Amino acid sequence: MPRLRARDLPHSIVFRTVTETAEGETPSSWSEPLPAYVEQKTRLVVDRRATSPTSGQEITSTTRVILLPQNDIPPAAQVRVWAGTPRERTSEVIASAKFDYDRRTPNHVQLDLE
Questions:
Q1: Are 11 and 39 in contact (CB under 8 A)?
Q2: How does residue 1 score in pLDDT terms, banded at 50, 70 and 90?
Q3: In angstroms, how far is CA 55 from the centroid of its own chain?
Q4: Which pTM does this prediction carry?
Q5: Structure confidence by residue, pLDDT tens digits, 34-48
Q6: pLDDT score for 84
Q7: Which residues, in sequence order, are CB contacts of 51 under 8 Å at separation 6+?
């Protein structure tokens, strides 16, 4: 059975969640680096962020991130990709999907970023 392993993912990301309170937004601290595959590719996705003004509409995603199944990150979390390079940027998760396949295809989590 093929399994996606950390050694198969050449990049790393960090993330943090943002909680809305009466005083405003409160971000958590950045996570430890997670193994990932990061691809800069533009495509249309449905906005899954509950608090977004474009929630439920198709919007453009510029980056796709593949993670191990245990590293599920919710929509609206902030993700930093390509840390320490000139392309480093922080972006919000538009949609997050977990793919559980049969034994012939590796399971993974896919994030679509702004």
A1: no
A2: low
A3: 17
A4: 0.87
A5: 999 999 999 999 998
A6: 87
A7: 20, 76
For 89, counting Cβ atoms within 10 Å of its Cβ (0-12 exposed, 13-18 middle, 19+ buried), the class is middle
- From CA 57, how far away is CA 45, in angstroms rounded? 8
Q: Whole-angstrom Cα distance, residue 38 to residue 19?
A: 25
Place of tokens 């000139």: 86
Residues 84-106, mean pLDDT to the nearest whole number: 89
User: Within a 10 A sphere around the Cβ of 42, how many other Cβ atoms?
Assistant: 9
Residue range 38-60: average pLDDT? 90
Instruction: Please tell me whether residue 6 adopts helix, strand or coil conformation.
Output: helix
CA–CA dist 41, 63 (Å, integer) = 5
Q: Please give the DSSP secondary-structure letter assigned to residue 32.
A: P
Query: Residue length, the chain?
Result: 114
CATH topology for 6-113 is Thrombin, subunit H (2.40.10)
Average pLDDT over all residues of the chain: 90
